[in-house]
Amino acid sequence: DLKALFDFVRTSLTPTGSDSWKGPVLLVDDLGVLLSLGASPVAVLDFIHYCRVTVCSQLKGNIVVLVHSNEDSEDEENELVVNSLCHHSDLILWVEGLATGFCKDVHGQIKIIRRVSLELTAEQDRVQIYQYKIQDKNVTFFARGLSAAVL
Description:
By secondary structure, this protein is an alpha+beta fold. It folds into 2 domains: 1-89, no CATH class; 90-150, no CATH class. It contains 4 helices and 6 strands, in the order H-E-H-H-E-H-E-E-E-E. The protein has helices at residues 3-13, 32-36, 41-58, 76-88; strands at residues 25-28, 62-65, 91-96, 108-114, 126-134, 139-143. Helix 3 packs parallel to helix 4.
């Protein structure tokens, strides 16, 4: 039962008389932890739904959720949560390694999916793909095939 966790989130983000929250953001570091602790996928999705209603609709804020996914994974409960979250999200940042394997100059790629189809228009979702390299104190992003090693 995640009701106690939701109550904690709601009371923590709801402004008191002197507070003036302007668009609070709820960050959920790893939603899969709730599944590994024994929560059912339905309970996890209900928790996120109630958080969305409170944070996004009532408080005019945003929710950022990290979930791990693997195409080869046999964890059906996690994949159910991932697919449901993707279906209900406005913006998806999908980070993955390179399909071709390891490269010392390119560490992976990020796919940015802006879900305009949620707005009930005939437009397709906008997808942008960038590759990245992680350095000591920052990350460098570049268009696919345009890393310094290739040019």
